[in-house]
Amino acid sequence: MFLVRLIYCSTQAGVGDADIEAILDRSRANNSLDGITGTLVYDGMHFLQILEGSRRAVSQRFIVISNDKRHKNIEIMDMSPIRERRFPAWTMQYVGGTDLDQEIVSTYSAGGFDPRRMINMDGVVDMIWRLAQ
Predict the structure, then answer these.
(1) Which residue from 113, 23, 38 is spatially nearest to 69, judged by alpha carbons?
(2) Residue 133: which residues within 8 A CB-CB, separation 6 or more?
(3) Domain boundaries of the chain, sorted by first residue
């Protein structure tokens, strides 16, 4: 199977804790069915997400995400072919709130957690991996 990794960011549009739980519940169920894995990072303002899977499944999932009214200013940061998944065990890992380790974030982004200022996609993947551990 031809695998891709999609990295996107967006700004939340009126999202509360119940919305995050709903997003995670639905994502985990749908991603499991579609063979998608990844991680969602949320700091209360910005979403940063990695999705891994077949090009078709990831592209279709991104269409759904981009039409979700809980996101605004959505931007694809990168979509690249990959040989293997970096997040194979997680249908949707979540990092947010107190789990968002600012020391790790500052290693990759001097201005704090602002996905639009992160330009090194390998660094973004590494940062998310470290945050999710």
Answers:
(1) 23
(2) none
(3) 3-132
Q: Cite the DSSP H helix spans in 10-120.
A: 17-34, 55-66, 102-108
What is the pTM (predicted TM-score) of this model?
0.92
What is the tens place of the pLDDT at every residue in 30-88? 999 999 999 999 999 999 999 999 999 999 999 999 999 989 999 999 999 999 999 99
CATH 3.20.20.70 fits 3-132, yes or no: no
Q: Is 42 buried (19+), middle (13-18) or exposed (0-12) by CB count in 10 A?
A: buried
CA atoms within 13 A on the CB side of 1: 14
Asked if residues 76 and 82 have their Cβ atoms less than 8 Å apart, the reply is no
